[in-house]
Design brief:
5 helices
């Protein structure tokens, strides 16, 4: 099996720099697009914090929803970052859904809803979508990386393999 983040050592070492740059771009996007953060002033600080926590919880729940019957699940914490690990073998389609479902449900759908609403509902939808895009920065990069893998690819614990028949993946801790 090959490492998911490329055999290229430079990319593996610098992956998080791409994610941080994307986070910064998304964070600054409202100002760069001329909207500013005026939609945030609709809510109190406590309300904003509760929304952020709720978005994070729903985001992680959507990840778990995709893989809950496929294998063991664990949550890893490093600094302010959290990520879900599983020992499940996931097809390209399931792994892409695993990475993309929170983006679709918590950023794309609220963005579409905001186009058809106004006032506080529009502000709330924009804020939810914006917060989730920041949370999803790594998922966005991963979704793209998953899409460029061959169709018969399977993923397991940070590695991938193009399926060969018979379909066998060694389950070892040495990878």
């Amino acid at each position: 099996m090959d490492p998911f983040y490329s055999k290229n050592n430079w990319f593996r070492k610098n992956y998080m720099k791409f994610v941080y740059l994307l986070m910064l771009a998304i964070f600054l996007a409202p100002n760069l697009l001329g909207e500013g953060f005026s939609f945030i002033s609709t809510f109190t600080l406590l309300t904003l914090l509760l929304i952020i926590v709720a978005v994070f919880i729903v985001h992680e729940f959507l990840h778990v929803l995709v893989i809950h019957n496929k294998g063991d699940i664990s949550l890893t914490v490093k600094g302010i970052f959290f990520w879900i690990n599983t020992n499940a073998i996931l097809s390209k389609k399931r792994f892409w859904i695993f990475m993309s479902l929170p983006i679709i449900v918590l950023s794309v759908l609220p963005g579409i809803i905001s186009c058809y609403s106004s006032g506080s509902i529009k502000s709330l939808m924009l804020f939810i979508g914006w917060v989730n895009l920041i949370i999803s920065s790594s998922d966005i990069v991963n979704s793209f990386l998953i899409l460029i893998k061959p169709n018969k690819t399977v993923f397991w614990r940070g590695y991938y393999q193009v399926k060969q028949y018979p379909y066998i993946i060694r389950h070892t801790d040495n990878h």
